[in-house]
Amino acid sequence: MSDASAPITVVVGYQSKTINTVTAGTLLRSLGYLEKRLGPRYRVVWQDYSTGAPITAEMVAGKIDIGSMGDYPMLINGSRNQEFGDGRTKLVAATGYNLRGALNMVVVDPKSPIHTLADLAGKRISASVGSAGHGTTVHALDRAGVGGFRIQNQVPAVGASALQSGTVDALGQFVAWPGQLVFAGQARLLYDGAELNLPTWHGVVVRERYANDHPEVLDAFLHSLVDATNYLNSNPMQAALTVAKETKLPAEVVYLYNGPNGMVTFDTTLRPELRYALEQDVPFLASIGNIKRLDLNAFWDASHISAIGGSTGIAKISGTDPVCGIPVTDPAKAGEVWVDGTTTRPAANPGCLLKQIAGAGKVKAAYVPSTDTGTRWFADKSFWVWDGEYLPFSTEEGARRHLAAHPSARLVSYSDALRGSR
Fold first, then answer.
1. Distance in angstroms (rounded) separating the CA atoms of residues 286 and 289
2. % helix, strand, coil for the chain, step of 5
3. CA–CA separation, 171 vs 108, rounded Å?
4. Ranges for the SsuA/THI5-like domain (predicted)?
5. Rg for the chain (alpha carbons), in Å?
6. Largest CA distance in the chain
7. Dist. CA 58–CA 60, nearest whole Å
């Protein structure tokens, strides 16, 4: 006979360093919203993983009740649980997304002779097979007509070490690994996933049997997810500092993704564009044997988050540029300069951002949208072009495409761009 006074347990699987899921994991856990909503009658167990694959394995075994992961692992989760699990899983909410796909990138060693996707022909590429980073890498190379490359299946940390040791030529991974490695000077961005123009995102899955047995827990989790999302969008700097403290990631890297106009749009809504992305992902996962069959209609369940109403107030850069003295209105050009402390200064456009940096001396970080993809990137790691104005690009290949289309334009170094902006 069961003890009616025993606490009801909910086991939550999350990826602490996967920035796109912090509102269902790292930040949510730190804020304590779920525990507060559930009260003392419930016990929340948080289990941290580096990728979505082990979360899926534990859900199949009935050992994790709610998990957050990327779009590719989500599909594998739905497929495996439909095939093997003790009941099915449901996809019930989003955590964050980039509608162009910038959350997945390919990086190389800073001194690597590889400068274009074509240079990866016949090369060794580290990726976590079945992850969104893997999918983006293969899609990009296929689209570019590049063949002969070899994928080495490695978890992100192992792949990062392999890149630094030279045992692989490139690394195709998801957030926040590309930004972290580039910020640390350990990698150079070769390919911006936004060039695929296909949404990439992360979301929340729940074991259907658990949700049926404990609907109040799922309701509390989704309400807490919305609360954490609204907190992040209202307090992006404080949220980034909290995540940085919990994960030991540099705050400047976390803020690259989680700041206003950041690479991640934090929104819990299961949008049609996100479902479309899943439909496009299924053939690739089937081709590598990670999905045998999947009833997407049975897996996708927007009813719970729709009933709650979802999150509001996506963070945007606003205010007046302190150097140029003009309002920040165009998100395609708006940037931020983080000089010190815990506040940033808005920049109306790349030229104004350079003026701010040049006048400020040393800065913690500066963020600027890439001219071609709109991807928010580090100003000092961007490739700059002078074409009557200073234009930043996240990749060298993107900058050279602009040069090919504009013969009078020229590539300039970051230091020259700073000097020229004075």
1. 5
2. 45, 20, 35
3. 6
4. 102-239
5. 22
6. 81
7. 5
pTM of the model: 0.94
**Secondary structure letter of residue 22 according to DSSP:** G
CATH 3.40.190.10 fits 104-196, yes or no: yes
Residue 94: phi, psi to the nearest 5? -95, 160
Q: What residues does each domain of the chain span?
A: 8-99+199-308, 104-196, 335-421
- What is the pLDDT tens value at each position of the chain, 422 positions in all? 456 678 999 999 999 988 999 999 999 999 999 999 999 999 999 999 988 889 999 999 999 999 999 999 999 999 998 887 667 999 999 999 999 999 999 999 999 999 999 999 999 999 999 888 999 999 999 999 999 999 999 999 999 999 999 999 999 999 999 999 999 999 999 999 999 999 999 999 999 999 999 999 999 999 999 999 999 999 999 999 999 999 999 999 999 999 999 999 999 999 999 999 999 999 999 998 989 889 999 999 999 999 998 887 888 999 999 999 999 999 999 999 999 999 999 999 999 999 999 999 789 999 999 999 999 999 999 999 999 999 999 999 999 999 999 999 999 999 999 999 98
Q: Cα–Cα distance between 216 and 27 in angstroms, integer?
A: 21
| Token duo for residue 72 | 């590719």
- CATH label, 8-99+199-308, candidates 3.50.40.10, 3.40.50.620, 3.40.50.1820, 3.40.190.10: 3.40.190.10
Q: Which residues contact 293 (CB under 8 A, 6 or more apart)?
A: 79, 82, 83
Is residue 296 within 8 Å of 278, Cβ to Cβ? yes
What is the Cα–Cα distance from 422 to 418, expressed in whole angstroms? 7
Cβ-proximal residues to 361 (8 Å cutoff; 6+ apart), any chain: none
- In 3-state terms, what secondary structure has residue 293? coil
Q: Which residues contact 298 (CB under 8 A, 6 or more apart)?
A: 82, 88
